[in-house]
Amino acid sequence: MASLSPHLTDSAVSIVALDDQAIGRAQALANRLALSLTALQPEATQLWLSEQGLALKVPEFKQAFSIDFSSGKYDHRRKFGGGRGQPLARAVGLKQGQSPSVIDATAGFARDAFVLASLGCEVTMIEQNRIMSLLIEDALIRAADDAAIAEIAACMKLYQGNAIALLAEGKLQADVIYLDPMYPGRDKSALVKKEMQLLHQLVGADIDSGELLAIAREKAGKRVVVKRPKGAEFVGEKKPAASVQSKNTRFDIYPTR
């Protein structure tokens, strides 16, 4: 499998309007990010804007990457993921009559955030990478116009920035802080492998999960939940108070300090 070029950052990206209807928005985004508005360039990393929304096109992959809460894995997990009985929901403390507020401090593709919002949680997402943040922002805009999921999207808020710094400020508060530190994808699906490879390149190596766990335990109202591969070491070598297991994943639960 091809590997991404190193140091993929927003400064290395240009913006393309794929249709006339997207020109105005593409120019506004280019101005906002101080990036270039260019034509299609097959060998360049570009943000594509069209009537369908925003997508990231990386030369190493044929497929452009986007986030669409109304289809694919998002829609499938909303409909068939197991509701409040699924491991993620049990780990964050979802019970009958109880829908804790959640800060997802490592939003990524926002799949778990969307699941939690669909189950009734108010979810605050933090995403450090500017490009990933833009993809989530675009997905929220489109979801707000979709009657089937607009109510879910209204329960999701997004902040772009460093999670450790934002949590330390104390302005963001929730019952649960949810962490999904970066780890190599183990899914056999080629698409998931590509998504994880892209996320690794955008987000970078996991070098601060121990520090993030520490600040999360100080700031969470009730608990911190950390998603890990089944059999993986504990973050920061800190043993959790409890864990919820699924087939390939473990949700470690830490009390607040």
Could you explain the architecture of this structure?
The protein is an alpha/beta fold and 257 residues long. It is 33% helix and 19% strand. The protein has nine helices and ten strands. The strands form two sheets. Strands 6-5-4-7-8-10-9 form a seven-stranded mixed beta sheet, sandwiched between helices. A hairpin with a 2-residue loop joins β2 and β3. α7 packs parallel to α9. The radius of gyration is 18 Å and the shape is globular. 37% of the residues are buried. The N terminus is likely disordered.
What are its keywords?
257 residues; 9 helices; 7-stranded mixed beta sheet; alpha/beta; single chain; 3-stranded mixed beta sheet
As a percent range, the share of helical residues equals: 25-40%
Q: How would you sum up the global shape?
A: globular
Instruction: Quickly count the helices.
Output: 9
Q: How far apart lie the N and C ends?
A: 43 Å
**Rg over alpha carbons:** 18 Å
- Beta-strand segment tally: 10
Largest sheet: 7 strands, mixed
The unreliable regions are: 1-7, 184-191
pLDDT averaged residue by residue: 88
H/E element order: EHEEHHEHEHHEHEHHEEE
Give the strand order, joined by hyphens, for the main sheet. 6-5-4-7-8-10-9
Q: Which structural class matches the secondary elements? A: alpha/beta
Strand content: 15-25%
